[in-house]
Amino acid sequence: ICFDALKNTDAAIADVLVTAARQTDCDIHLALVSIEESGDAEYTGYGRYHDDDAFEVGEVYERTETVSDWRRPDGSEPELPTLPFAETECCPPDVFENLEFDDVQFHEATGNAGASFERTYYCAALVLWPHNRYLAIINQAGFSAALAMLQELCQNYEAAGDKTQASSHWQDAHRLAGYMLRDWLRQCLGSKSAYSRLQEFLECLYRLQDSQHIARFWSLFAENGIDNKDDCAMLVQVAELLPWSQVVEGLTRAVSISAANKAQEACAALLASFSQAYPDTAKDLSAAARVLFEALPGDAARFAHLNPWEHTRMTVNEGMVVDVLTGFSGIDAALAETALDYLLAWPDTYNRDAVLAPAALRLAEAGASRNLSVAVRLRLAVIAHVQKRVAEDLNPPADWRRDSQLKCNCKDCTELRLFLDDPHQDSWRFKAAENRREHVTQTISRHLCDVDQKTEKLSRPYSLICTKNQASYLRRVAQRQKDLDTLARLGVEGVVNER
Fold first, then answer.
1. Pick from 237, 339, 343: nearest CA to 289
2. What are the structural domain ranges in the chain?
3. Distances (CA, A) of 291 to 149, 271, 489
4. Which are the contacts of 421, defined by CB distance < 8 A and separation ≥ 6?
5. Tell me, what's the pLDDT at 300?
6. Is 9 exposed, middle or buried (0-12, 13-18, 19+ CB in 10 A)?
7. What is the reported pLDDT for 129?
8. Across the chain, what does the average pLDDT equal?
9. How far is CA 105 from the centre of its chain?
10. Residue 235 · residue 243 · CB < 8 Å
C-alpha cells in the first residue's frame, strides 16, 4: 500500500487530510487494517461434511483489530509496531459493522473440539494522531514495543551533548517510561515471562537517573512483591537513587507479599543482595528478615492454611540456604543462628546430602562467608553427617543374599522376596501373564532391588528373567568417593573403614 496508489475519492480524502495534518501538527499514515475473528462453526446439514458449504459461522470467541504496514505521505516506511485499535477510534464509528470478510476458513471437529472457523478482513486506512501523542501511541503496542523505543530514547539521550533532565531526549524517555509504569509494569511484575524485560526497563530508568519514576516503580514493587531472584541485582542498583527509609519500607512489604505467595527463594536472594550492598544499614531490614524466617518451608504447622499438596510443592535448594544464612548474618546474627537451628531441625525438607552439603561447600569456598558463625556451624554439621557414613563398613556382598524389604505382600512379590533373601540363588525365572510380570518389574524398580531384568519370549506366557547384581554396593562405593571429596573440600580428611 502507498499514498500514490489511492484513486478517486480515496485520493481526494487523503489530500485533504494530509494538508490538515500539517496545519494541526498531526502525524498521518496510510496503514493496513486487519480484523481477525475465530469461534465455533455449525454444521448446516447441506453439502458434504468436509466442504466449507456444509458449515456456517457460529459464536465469535476471539476478535483482534490491528493496524500495521505503515506508510508516510512521502512513501517512506516508518519503524512503527503493529498497533491495536478500538472501533470507537474510527471515523465513522460504525464503519466496520457490516463487514464482508475476505477469507473464511472452516475446520472440522477433531477429538473433543467441535467445528471452528477463522476469518479475516483487510483494508487500507488513513491513521492520524497529534504529534505530541506519538509516545502514547507507541505505548499502546505493548510493553515490549514500548521498551524498544525507550531503549532507543536512552541511547539518543546519552549520545546528545545535553545530559540534563531538561534535554528533549530525557523528557521523551521520561514520558514514555511514565506511560509504561501506568499501563504495563504491574502485570510485568506478576508475569514470569517478563522478567528479563523488567530488568531492561529498570536499566533504562537507571541510565536516565530518573528517581521520580524509580520511586513510582518501588511503590508498585512493594505492592506486588518479587518472584524472580535474577531481578535482585537491578533492584539493588536502582535503589541507590531512593531514600533508604523508602527502600526499607518497600522491601519489607514486598517480602511479606512474596513470602505469602511461596516465593521464598527470591525473598532470600533479595535480602542477601541488599545486606551485602548496604552492610552498615542492613540491620534496618530485620523486620523483612523475620517475615521470611516465619515463611521458611519445613514445619507444616506454619502452613496450616495451605492444602497438603501445596505444602509438598514448596521446594528448597542450596542457593536459598546460602542466601538465608548470609543475608540474615548481615541483618541480624542471632536470627541467622535461629534460622540454622530451624534448617537442621527439618532434615526431610533440608536434606543433608542434597541441600545442606552443597550449601556448606558454597559457603566454605566463598571467602566473604567462610568464617561466618552459621557457615562454620553448618560445615561442622555436614562433616559429622558425612563422617558417620564414611565410618560404615564398605564391603561387597559375601553371598547372593540381597535386601528383601518389600512393601507389597502379594503372592508374586512374596516369591520375589524369597528369591532376594536366598544366599545361594543368583537368578529367578518368573513365568506369568504380562500384568503379573509388569507388577513384579515395578516392585523391583520402586524398591531399587539389586536385580537385572529381561523378558524371555520362547513360549507363552513369557518369562521374566531376574538376575541379582551389586547395584547397592556400587552405589555405596560411588557415595563413599563423593563423601571423601566433600570432606576434602571442607578441609577434613575422611577415614575409610576397610574391616
1. 339
2. 3-130, 411-469
3. 39, 11, 34
4. 401, 402, 404
5. 84
6. exposed
7. 92
8. 90
9. 36
10. no
- Give residue 294's pLDDT: 96
Q: Rounded distance, CA 498 to CA 367, Å?
A: 36
Please check the confidence at residue 477 and state whether its pLDDT lies above 70.
Answer: yes
Question: Is residue 226 a contact partner of residue 258, using CB atoms and an 8 Å limit?
Answer: yes
CA quadruple 323, 326, 329, 330: dihedral, nearest 10: -100
Task: Give pTM, 2 decimals.
Answer: 0.80
Residue 446: CB atoms within 10 Å:
11
- Backbone φ and ψ for 42, nearest 5 degrees, come out as -120, 140
- Report yes or no: 326 and 279 within 8 Å, Cβ to Cβ: no
Per-residue pLDDT, 376: 96
Residue 485 has pLDDT above 80, yes or no: yes
Scan for cell 560445615, then name that residue: 379
Residue 398: what are its φ and ψ, rounded to 5°?
A: -80, -20
Whether 472 and 394 have beta carbons less than 8 Å apart is answered as no
Element (H, E) at 427: strand 427-431
Q: Residue 185: which of 219, 210, 151, 148 has the closest Cα?
A: 219
Report the pLDDT value the prediction gives residue 45, as an integer from 0 to 100: 60
Distance of CA 12 to the CA centre of its chain: 53
Using one digit for the tens of pLDDT, what is the confidence trace for 258-283? 998 889 999 999 999 999 999 999 99
Cell output for 119:
476469518
Alpha helices in 26-167 (DSSP H): 134-140, 143-159
Q: Do 340 and 377 form a contact (C-beta atoms < 8 A)? A: yes
